[in-house]
Amino acid sequence: MQTFGELSPPARLILTPGPSSLDSRVLRALGTPIVGHMDPWFIEMIGEVQAMLRQVFQTENRVTLPLSASGSGGIETAVVNALEPGEEAIVCVNGTFSERMAIVASRMYGVTIHRVEAPLGRTVDPDDVRRAAKGRKIKFVGVCQGETSTGVVTKLDGFRKVADEIGALLIVDAVASLAGVPLDVDRQRIDVCFSGSQKAISAPPGMAPITVGQNFEQMLRDRKTPVQSWYFDLKMVMDFWGKDRAYHHTPPISLIFGMREALRILCEEGLENSWHRHRQNQLALIAGIEALGLEPFVPDPEDRLPTVTSVRIPEGKGDGRIRMQLLEEFGIEIAGGIGPLKGKIWRIGLMGHTSQAKYVLMFLAAFEKVLLDHEIHFTPGAGVGAAERVYAESAAVEHRK
Amino acid sequence: MQTFGELSPPARLILTPGPSSLDSRVLRALGTPIVGHMDPWFIEMIGEVQAMLRQVFQTENRVTLPLSASGSGGIETAVVNALEPGEEAIVCVNGTFSERMAIVASRMYGVTIHRVEAPLGRTVDPDDVRRAAKGRKIKFVGVCQGETSTGVVTKLDGFRKVADEIGALLIVDAVASLAGVPLDVDRQRIDVCFSGSQKAISAPPGMAPITVGQNFEQMLRDRKTPVQSWYFDLKMVMDFWGKDRAYHHTPPISLIFGMREALRILCEEGLENSWHRHRQNQLALIAGIEALGLEPFVPDPEDRLPTVTSVRIPEGKGDGRIRMQLLEEFGIEIAGGIGPLKGKIWRIGLMGHTSQAKYVLMFLAAFEKVLLDHEIHFTPGAGVGAAERVYAESAAVEHRK
Q: In order of start, what are the domains of chain B with their CATH numbers?
């Protein structure tokens, strides 16, 4: 039989909007010899993972667990459990990932999905949701807190208010925001919130943490039709992750080991410290980017997602060639735009483990070199210098405290 | 925030029907620093994984890839892509996992699923499928090659013949059989075949290899309605795994590293050697079990699945206490029965890495000790002795060749 050589990936610093490069502790956990998923030790250990996830979501929700799927599987789980044939929902769309919720839900039999849109780089206006709901019975309002395709963060409280007024559930996609942006599931009364393992939690890709409130749980019990998906049926998934620990499907044991370690690192740091770190490093990155004469894609600084920074590509400059040189010469991966923004923006992720001052400075140094090679002009060192000044100022502020 | 201690799982020999204990090479691959899923290196590497999967499935099918889900996700993928509202299918049911295909498919809107059943421990008769199809338009016949809940292996050729007669597709669940039991997707003209990463391939749990033939691909193109699941939509999954390598969802990169290494080990051994090894070790295990006065649950030796051996629990003996002692005293995990067989059988997995003579002998030695402690009587050493004789005879046979 044909075989292939040793696994030998190139060393990379992954500064994309996920996955993020992993801490060596997480890698070590991933490579730990496994136990069976019905082993008493495993059954107890997953309770620790759930306890840490509850802290990160800031919730006491019983139903809090990592789904055995990517963040997109989290989207599918949220909507197929929420909707029954004949029902309607509103999804706020301001980019590819918020639109994904509308697309996934629209595939379900007999449901009607209303899209409320905002231009790319902006947030949806809760008043538009109120208008779209007029005269309709809306089951849920879906909002994406961190729109990865544009680098926009959405404030959630206005949507909770509208959802209350129209008697709808609130579903929040926190794939790119959880642990990087303030989020408090219980205080903000979010009915379903899900994320992705490989973003600001910095666990390996392949799981989607999700948490579900009591109203949603009651709604699940009151459903008249079965959830269309067996794999994503939350009541059955909870047979395993709930007190029964009854077999549903075999979970990805090694990924749970990795997630446990990533959550330990996050809990050691503290959630507020993590939010602060993500914001600080983004400010330094943006200062550096602007000092190179580049323009952030998101016009309002308030709307900029701390975990993903989008930057307009200067007119006539080759997106692919610049990213390829960064990868080949420096081993640094950033992302391009997707959908209508393909070729128009770069997206730089500073998520979890990669949101560190040293990586911001290393990236800017490499980026300067590559941009200069492509005849984008600025004072050499300007980007790194601007970022260093942000760090110096923030250190001074911390010092004065 | 509350944190927990170091990840420190107990050392286990996992002899369940999946997951199996992993080779140290696979563990090392799992802990390898990751690259992004759009990295040119990754894009090329996954082609190697696909090439090795094609060899293991014995197919030239273009659509051959590991799904980002457990084996149960493989079931869901097969049926939701195959069926549209108004269509009918036949599922052969002779245990929990074959029944799962019927249950998953029955959740779909507007489809009719006919079950053709066999008693537990037996195989379904293809003639019964022929009778059930009479007067109906059947889209597919679903068969489980290795029924993990009972330890039964089903011969596939009779079902292909019936499917041809009635103009139906053939879907084969090879979750517990692929790489452990002869299977030739192209020669046997299987339209869809899926497996689980954590069984006889001995990769970490969390992925479901699947392969799809040209007739099924054509059927996908001819569908009148969208596949109800976005996550499991094969056409979209193939956007990433096909020649476009276009982003669909973020795959579990570390698990793909682990699977690549597991496939390398399998390809180095050779598929026929792997089948032979699984059969030999099962024969030794059964000889040992019978020498202890225990009875295999599957009456016909021809029907016994080489990867999972089921054994009747002697009347009045505590299933749980015996398994717990094996786990605590020897670190060996075997499984109990599930569904109607709970408390009635033990299931011993010899899958991939764990199908080794040394593990068979270690298990029998430990099992003897525990059974004697529970006052199940036999000549001490009888089980180990009987297994050793099987190995000695087979070595003599090999030697004479």
A: 24-267 (3.40.640.10), 270-400 (3.90.1150.10)
